[in-house]
Known about the structure:
Helices cover 10% and strands 29% of the residues. The protein has 165 residues and is mostly beta strands. The strands form two sheets. Strands 2, 4, 5, 6, 8 and 9 form a six-stranded mixed β-sheet that branches. The longest helix has 17 residues, at 2-18. The radius of gyration is 28 Å and the shape is globular. It starts with a helix and ends with a strand.
Amino acid sequence: MWLMRGAAIFCCCALAACEQPAPDNTAAPETPAAAAPAPAPAPAGMPRSAPPAGASVYIVSPANGATVSNPVRVVFGLKGMGVVPAGIERDGAGHHHLLVDTDLPPLNLPVPADDRHIHFGGGQTETELTLSPGSHTLQLLLGDHLHVPHDPPVVSARVTITVQP
């Protein structure tokens, strides 16, 4: 019985699919090949968590304007929030990202991971860097469990240092 019903439904669907309307020759001509496609919409971003009121992140050392030599020890400071490793979702907490010689990334997306956006997903609060001689900028940006900055972002002042040869 079920087999007969199934076969009947299949045949009806197959016949319906075969019935196609006659081509409409009055349709507008196709868009010329030279027309550019519409730009893709900008990514909507990801949900962002709010930090506690008054939360701040800062670079303890080196100081702004300091002249240093390699390896450069960078110590992170955080007030009003906790530090947790990436992947651990906890209100009022996050982990550090050190921005080297770059501007802030888009704040509605995860912080990129490259040599200018250094992730400290283990919950580290300091690091040592080897930088080329000359002037460099350092800035901290706190991210949530998915590396997305908080809203409003918890970001330090930019520190400029000079690395000696």
